[in-house]
Amino acid sequence: MDRGLLICCAAVFILVSDVCGECNRNQWQCYDGVCIPHRWHCDGVGDCQDGSDEMACSCPPKAFECADGSGCVTESLACDGRAQCSDGSDELDCDWRSGCLSSDWKCRNNICIPQNFLCNEVNDCGDNSDEETCGSCMKMKIRCSDGRCLNQREMCDGVAQCTDRSDEPHTCGKSCRNANGGCSHTCVDQTWGALCNCPSGMTLSANGFDCIDVDECSQSFGPCMHLCTNTPGSFRCLCQNGFKSLGNGSCEAQGFPVKILTFRRSLIGLVNVKTRVFEPLLSIESDPIALTYDIQRNFIYWADNHGNIYKAYNHKSMVLYSGQPGVRSLAVDWLTGQLYWTSVTQKAIFTGTADGSSTCVVISKDTDPGEIVLSPVESFIFWINNGMSEEITIERTAMDGSNRTTLIFVTAQIPKGLTLDVAARRLFWISEFKMSIESIRTDGSGSYTFWNFFQGSPGQSLAVFNGWFYWADEKRLWQTPQNLPPAKYNEFLLKASLPVLTVYHELQQPQGFSPCKNSRCTLCLPSKESPVGFTCLCPEGMLPVAYGSCENFKVAYATAMVIYSLEFTGNTTIKTELFTSDEDIQAFDMHWKRGCVVWCNGTGHVKTNKLSQDMSEYILTLKPGMC
Ligand SMILES: *[C@@H]1O[C@H](CO)[C@@H](O)[C@H](O)[C@H]1NC(C)=O
Ligand SMILES: *[C@@H]1O[C@H](CO)[C@@H](O)[C@H](O)[C@H]1NC(C)=O
Ligand SMILES: *[C@@H]1O[C@H](CO)[C@@H](O)[C@H](O)[C@H]1NC(C)=O
Ligand SMILES: *[C@@H]1O[C@H](CO)[C@@H](O)[C@H](O)[C@H]1NC(C)=O
């Protein structure tokens, strides 16, 4: 079926925020001032709007050019841990080569953990390598904040063993009888001096006598399910709209019953998690490999592995897009109704209108995307990316492809089933290697592992909502509460193999303001950088005019009596008479945006005409006959 699909050009999005500033050390500055990652300079693909990043490239293709222009470094030597450039620029921005973020520590089994998880008496790696070099603090009871253990004799010996010097507090040699040992709260005498203690909600600062507030909200998981505000000595939890606070930090979804959208035996349908009944909605011909929905507009979307993306409305389905090879995952911007998807064969993230009329590439640079989820209320896209050197990462970008960052390296985890708890602002996924469910906040903080989640074989699909995990293994659908140890509390929901599933609930698609509401462009992408809050994409052949609308490419030409415009739309050309005159048009210029023409008549008098009104105005020039 051909409904005149318009494919737009692959727009390249770049960071325009620092147009007027300096670029940082990892970046290269285009001649127009825009900063791009230094790796993109002279990589054979134009990234600057003015093409300057691929001009004057003195290094052979793929070689790295030192930031100070001092030389070229072959690809294999860049990021090898040793600086070849005199300014060291070949060793910057190298997270992808080391396989973990620079703020992470790499376990023996190659799992990445945040550096502050080292020596915290928790086996965060799974192979305990993060706790092995810390020594045992069991008897000694003195532990530096960096994890090192000390014996009593090393306390107050005049040599700082802990990196924060907490083994040499200002209370060394002091006694509690004397001005409370200097303690701000309680004081306990020790052989080495006065030990200050703090009430709950506070912790001792490194100086040894001041108690300072604990930021409970900075814990990697909890104490609040949704929103957390730290207060002196305590914290406050709040729930998102539509959820009821249970008083203990938990929030409970109100409204419609929780359902799981999935497919089974050639039927797309909903599983009510209370009644455990599968309610069929549609029959389908080929099994979906991806499935999503727009609850407000009552659309269901799915994709098969024959290049088709389908849409269903009121139990009727249609092919929305065909010829989309390798679709891997689908997601909806429920605020605008626009669809997003990833393609493993085209190695790009696409977006398309809900009516099937236009598609466009959002990101194709340095990406090989797998599963994708959207957070339109935050204007973010998240996806599992198969990157350079076979590194697998979870990436985040604004919905127009700008502000891209790597949130976490998950290569060794073998991740799948990426999903978003929209209310909790948390991503969750299955780690096949760790047999766990993993989570981070949408800002990249709060890395957390639900250990020993899977017994036997790991789940193949996952959804998270309202404090529950919904997941399916090869044979069954289960639900498990987040706050109780798994395995024991798995509740059986349905006997079926469900490789694709998602929670269907209005609170997973909360309504809110979209910057695209006021745009008139064919495809509108919310942006973090554009001053109007969105980027317009125009189908091929059309050009974005100002902010917010697309126009066909137009040219104007004149005969002695008439000015014409030629508008190129898809495969036809429309010729329009813009203006006629019997004064012998000598020269003219168009002001498309204002809709007027400036022209010269046969005796060299300059005139201007507004095209909408048949009115001519004479512009007085000093010397008629000069044009
Ligand atoms: C909070 O309270 C509810 C209802 O009393 C209970 O079901 C739930 O398990 C509690 N959550 C936590 C994290 O303790
Ligand atoms: C986007 O990136 C720019 C610089 O690259 C930064 O200044 C800006 O704060 C970022 N915006 C968001 C919302 O992260
Ligand atoms: C292009 O031309 C073909 C055949 O002439 C026609 O079927 C199709 O609808 C046209 N497309 C557009 C966008 O006008
Ligand atoms: C050009 O415009 C001037 C001023 O309106 C007019 O006097 C003159 O006759 C025009 N020339 C021609 C060739 O019509």
From TrEMBL:
Tell me which positions the record assigns to the signal sequence. Answer: 1-21
Q: Name one GO cellular component term.
A: apical plasma membrane
InterPro entries (alphabetical): 6-blade_b-propeller_TolB-like, EGF, EGF-like_Ca-bd_dom, EGF-type_Asp/Asn_hydroxyl_site, EGF_Ca-bd_CS, Growth_fac_rcpt_cys_sf, LDL_receptor-like_sf, LDLR-related
Query: Where in or outside the cell is it found?
Result: Membrane
- The LDL-receptor class B repeats lie at 379-424
Domain (EGF-like): residue spans on this chain: 213-252
Q: List the disulfide bonds.
A: 23-35, 30-48, 42-57, 79-94, 100-112, 107-125, 119-134, 137-149, 144-162
The annotated topology with respect to the bilayer is: Single-pass membrane protein
Q: Please, which domain of life does this record's source organism belong to? A: Eukaryota
Task: Give the GO molecular function terms.
Answer: calcium ion binding; hormone binding
Q: Name one Pfam family in it.
A: EGF_CA
* PROSITE patterns reported for this sequence: ASX_HYDROXYL, EGF_2, EGF_3, EGF_CA, LDLRA_1, LDLRA_2, LDLRB
Q: Name one GO biological process term.
A: receptor-mediated endocytosis
Q: Which Gene3D superfamilies match?
A: Laminin (2.10.25.10), Low-density Lipoprotein Receptor (4.10.400.10), TolB, C-terminal domain (2.120.10.30)
- Name it: Low-density lipoprotein receptor-related protein 2
Q: What is the lineage of its organism?
A: Eukaryota, Metazoa, Chordata, Craniata, Vertebrata
